[in-house]
């Protein structure tokens, strides 16, 4: 099992904070944002980490080098910022046929449970397992993706990117576990006409439509996608660092 950490974006909404540093290297409780993903990956027991970098790639490479806490890091350059699915496509040679855990380096989870999600993925022989959180404010789901599924079995039937009207309190995150076979669905994934790029939920939906076992898992007690300076200040004020990684 490998970890695939996507860290190629700039983060324009963070204004001057990302003019001279990669967004994922901004500090939260004294640690770079990306380190929370790396630590969670190691806690789950991954054997290798693949990091997709782009804007100011040198910031991340110089900070972590070729390993993190003894686990090898391999870097992949995403020369053009064309979305998450394109970043996954860039990493395909580095993944090399392995199953992998997907992380978005600007996502922070409260009380993350990646190890437990990986256990479910293996025990149920799933094709994809999507990490989700429950939210009181359903408007937040419009920023990520929604899902329709069986609450008892946690099997997913439909994923919807940035829904206008979420129908439940389940919010999808970028924390997913995937079989290497997910790459077989890249070519048939449609391009989102509004964004001009392929979207992660649409990629996974292609597998669902073919009858693959895709389930969801409650990955944490809270979720924050770091997009603005207020997001960082809010997380630091509300949560101690020990609650944000394993």
Structure description:
With 246 residues, the protein is an alpha/beta fold. The chain has one domain (2-243): Spore Coat Polysaccharide Biosynthesis Protein SpsA, Chain A, CATH 3.90.550. It is built from seven helices and 16 strands. The chain has helices at residues 33-44, 57-64, 84-90, 92-95, 114-123, 200-209, 229-238, and strands at 2-7, 27-28, 31-32, 48-53, 67-68, 71-77, 100-104, 107-110, 128-134, 145-149, 156-161, 170-178, 191-192, 197-198, 214-218, 222-225. It has an eight-stranded mixed β-sheet with strand order 5-6-4-1-7-12-9-15, sandwiched between helices. α1 crosses α5. The longest helix is centred in the first third of the chain and has 12 residues, at 33-44. The chain is globular and about 45 Å long.
Secondary structure blueprint with pairings:
Blueprint: E1 2-7, E2 27-28, E3 31-32, H1 33-44, E4 48-53, H2 57-64, E5 67-68, E6 71-77, H3 84-90, H4 92-95, E7 100-104, E8 107-110, H5 114-123, E9 128-134, E10 145-149, E11 156-161, E12 170-178, E13 191-192, E14 197-198, H6 200-209, E15 214-218, E16 222-225, H7 229-238
Parallel strand pairs: 1-4, 1-7, 4-6, 9-15
Antiparallel strand pairs: 2-3, 5-6, 7-12, 8-16, 9-12, 10-11, 13-14
Helix pairs in contact: 1-5
